[in-house]
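Batch manifest, entry 17 of 40.
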Amino acid sequence: MFDKLFKLKENKTSVKTEIIAGVTTFMTMAYILFLNPNILSVTGMDKSAVFFATAISAGFVTIAMGLVANFPIALAPGMGLNALFATVALAGVGMRWQVALGAVFISGLIFILLTVTQIRQILVVAVPNSLKRAITVGIGLFITIIGLKLSEIMVVSAKVIAPTLAALGKNAGMTTLNFFEWNIGLGSFHNSSMLLSLIGLLLTAVLMARKVKGSLLIGIVATTIIGIPMGVTIIPQAFSPFSLPDFHHLAVGALDIPGALRMGIWTVVFTFTFVELFDTFGTLVGTAGKAGLIDADGSSPKIGKAMLVDAFGVSFGALMGTSTVTSYVESAAGIGEGGRTGLTALTTGIFFLFSLLIAPLAGIIPSAATAPALIIVGVLMASSVLDINFNDFTEGFPAFMTFVIMPFTYSIANGIAAGIISYVLLKVATGKWKQVHWMMFLLFVLVISRYIFLNE
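Output type: structure tokens
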């Protein structure tokens, strides 16, 4: 049955190999089950609800990838994209998380439209590799900042300079940020949470350096255990590690689509769409290409089905109550174990669904245990800077502006916009306009128009 459904012999693999590959992929990306709730909880979302949404969306969408596209690629709420979501819907600062979920849902519909009309593939070709890599680097830096803050290694405090002026600015519809003095410094070594984070960071780094499979997951679990005698990991009374999550606070169907249409649709939806666009394509082509499943240029007909499943996953995840679901580069671990078909993805998806039984464990994992994983992921993403050609200033400068503007303005959208604008301007000014894809000129006009005619 499996051979006929997944064409195992044709792909020179076996049921045993595919299942082992699926388990390996799950082990390398299971950290998202514990990390995602901690990240999205800063928006006011319930951790148990996010755990449920993470497991359900990762499980069903990954299974769909296996059955529909017959690809050994797993999907789950993406790192970087969940950080973006948390920033947009930061509790008490940004838009409500329900509205942010609405924006994610809309971006999924846009993906479906772009994929069916082939525009998505054109955009991927249009944007130069230097900017694609810079976007990855910028998000890596963004994630690192969040990890440093959650670990309390970096402490951010605000001091009111002039309360009367702040009140005046607020009444006048002005931002009050200008009336605060922001201080950024190193946390205290007397802080148990910070010490636990440093222990976890060192432990995970050593595991990564030794190329231990599942390093991030092992690091999170080990750090959580170490945190028990330190008083950072709190285990509630009558704790049971194996039971279904609390269904009273689930965010299934809680998204606010009308709210997303009213609030910053150009900024938020465009950012979710743009970042996910290249993240998915790069992951699919990079991992599946290593397995010999598609050409280097992604010309395999399977890539279209894979992108369609990915697009569906974005909206499905939002309906379940989580940030953007995307293809995971950790799928390369399963491919490295010999995974070549959708049976690998099916196995991984089933394990994600079974993980619902360990939902209570997610609730006791402290931020100090997951923050190191964020920093490590930031390192992995920032390594893409090595693929940027800084010898060509028309490539290096736009890339630099992209990944510097992102963390320094605390906006991924601003970084992408800076990259597009500077890239087109430099290429035209140096007579290299023929190197610019026509779609980049269109994006240039759209970005400029967005900053001229739309309010922040």
